């Protein structure tokens, strides 16, 4: 169960990271 939770956390973080990168791309 905890492993599944960790996986979802990682996915959320990755999503945020990608979103930030995308926004920076558009800004530049």
UniProtKB/TrEMBL annotation:
Q: Which GO terms describe its molecular function?
A: endonuclease activity
Q: Which UniProt keywords apply?
A: Endonuclease, Hydrolase, Nuclease
Protein name in the entry: Restriction endonuclease
